[in-house]
Write a structure and sequence with these properties.
102 residues, alpha+beta, 4-stranded antiparallel sheet
């Protein structure tokens, strides 16, 4: 593996670790703003950060660490149903608990 690729992979891992840490802290505090949701896109995942919470909706913004994977109908920023975001978080949290990654 060449140096450039190794550095890129290491930086992506560092950014993802920071994202996971932020997500755990906010989850423990009982919030959703700052947590992330991910959607399968092509051969990877489009990751979005919840940036604002309303009564029935949330604003999301693309997380740059997920490279060029975007949900086509969300683009870089979108407002989506809060229930969809919460279901996505619950699903990921449940899988993490099942596999001991809490």
């Amino acid at each position: 593996m060449d140096d450039k690729l190794a550095k890129w992979l290491k930086e992506r891992e560092r950014l993802y670790d920071e994202l996971e840490k932020q997500d755990r802290i906010i989850k423990q505090a009982g919030g959703i703003v700052g947590r992330y949701i991910s959607e399968v896109e092509c051969d990877g995942y489009a990751i979005y950060i919840i940036t604002r919470e309303y009564k029935t909706k949330v604003k999301i913004e693309h997380w740059p660490g997920s490279e060029d994977y975007y949900v086509p109908y969300w683009g870089e920023k979108a407002t989506i149903d809060k229930s969809y975001a919460i279901d996505s978080l619950k699903s990921r949290d449940g899988l993490n608990e099942l596999f001991g990654r809490t």
